[in-house]
């Protein structure tokens, strides 16, 4: 396909049709010229809608085939449409939410889940997924924490690359990394809110995970809704053109987020849609999602010479090249097949991986000898408002309650001979105070050998637009907890949530606490395996759990102060510790591990060389288990102060009871770099400390010290 020759033949209107994306609901046009619904709100004509180059969110393979056929019949250039959807953590088989997958610290598993999700989605005609979402998060009030792998730059980069490989390799699909940039830093945790971040902090923490996706060959990128330092991302020439295109060399397709172009007026950045179009095309945004600034205003901008035809041609070329890469010109329907969408989705293989992923991403936060439960129990109470639900999470695509396994069902599956009963206990309303269902649950708890109590938040309470100012359990859930535990202390709490919650006031009452997140289609089976000890816990938190909302933002890799906490006139709170309730990297197991004092092969590191730090890790408990061994580094002094500790490596290893293994990390110069005053990544000579630890609470471990010369 000679894309350039094709572009030469195209009219401006035809080019702009390629650069506009509409939701499939806009395409179901009734006969006649009448345009309704969102298309009408955007003041689009019938032709503008029908000729669009790409489609967002449609029903299934049958709908896709129908839409594509109709489009090709009418399109004078016979350019197929490209179909896109948010396949963030699964298409029909739903894997745990990305925040949970991060806790697995298992990049190979992440890659595998994304690969399977992409294979499923292609049967439904989807060729681009709007993932990975790699926004760094430090504020659990923000509802979209669930979509990202957490608060750490290094882990997010590894997970970003794994997702790109998984979605794209061997699948016939493209990934679209989002939301560029720093959308996760929304002020006060309120979605779509302002972000204001110094270039240094952006470069060191917020930008690397997008760049990792670019370096891994991601085909598309989405700009974010937020303003960054005063300028909305979709009109931010420095962010998009200078950094992403020119500095990082990204030549793939850039799409705006949903209506983000015209929202530049709401931000008070553009006077009208024409200015939105000009700002965005100058920033090299190629495709405009769900607004109509390009189609309606680029012609006048070309006419007046404010926008050059070469800018439009370059955008169209990038987009058509992606269509070419995906083979659409040879087969516009490739992969889409209604029969396969039935037979090749939700297979046993996919379900098995989804179960494994849920097992590996759950985190055991507390266990006072309650867990694992014995499989010989006769009467099991499964209590709480989430016990009978399949906790899929937002962006669950075509995941369905009917095809998934709730915890109640999972326990029944595992214990076919036990009497397993459910009591709801309370509703899942976020501020529920009605405790009228508690007594029934209490009674059931009393009559049972063990209790599994599900608490937390409903899957509709986290996700886009679902910010919370308070992160505590509802009054009804608190009452339920205290009554149930009093009735039967043999209780384990299973927490479902899309973000860290504030558990300080209830933690003492919980004999055991399992962080289940939103574990997806096979969540119920996976959690039953964990609770009854068929499988051991191995997940570690990737987001800090605060003691109180007042500590937010709280994250492990903060800078130091001149007045460390725990003394008068220091950086502390009068009424609360400055430490978190659970730190980044924390998580228990059914066995115990120890890490020896680390050793170094050389105390000096020359430029371009590396040093090796190693320690012996031992399983000191009674059963086999996996442990995430974590490497943290601190630059003691630098021309710009550095954090107290930063994760720079991890290895997840499995050890039998009593087994020991030496775990070694090579530390190279690149791992010591930061965005310096010279506006580049550099490592400065001087002393560094390194810890090999089992969580970010490195104070509990002895460091090694080396010098970069
Ligand atoms: C979200 C994006 C998503 C898009 C398309 C927006 O509201 O912010 O993450 O990809 O919708 O569904």
Please report which band the strand proportion falls in: under 5%, 5-15%, 15-25%, 25-35%, 35-45% or over 45%: 15-25%
**Regions with little confidence, pLDDT below 50 for 5+ residues:** none
N-end to C-end Cα span: 54 Å
Could you tell me the number of beta strands?
A: 27
Class per helix and strand makeup: alpha/beta
Which cofactors or ions or other ligands sit in this model?
beta-D-glucopyranose
Q: Mean pLDDT, nearest integer?
A: 97
Query: How are the strands of the largest sheet arranged?
Result: 9-6-5-4-3-2-1-10
Helix residue percentage: 25-40%
Oligomer: single chain
Radius of gyration, in angstroms, nearest whole number:
26 Å
Largest sheet: 8 strands, parallel
Any overview of this molecule?
It is a single chain. Helix content is 30%, strand content 18%. With 709 residues, the chain is α/β, with parallel strands linked by helices. Strand 2 (54-56), helix 6 and strand 3 (82-85) form a beta-alpha-beta unit. Helix 9 runs parallel beside helix 11 (208-215) and helix 19 packs across helix 23. The longest helix has 17 residues, at 107-123. It is globular and about 75 Å long. The protein starts with a helix and ends with a strand. The mean pLDDT is 97. The chain binds beta-D-glucopyranose. Beta-D-glucopyranose is lined by residues 56, 86, 130, 178, 257-258, 464.
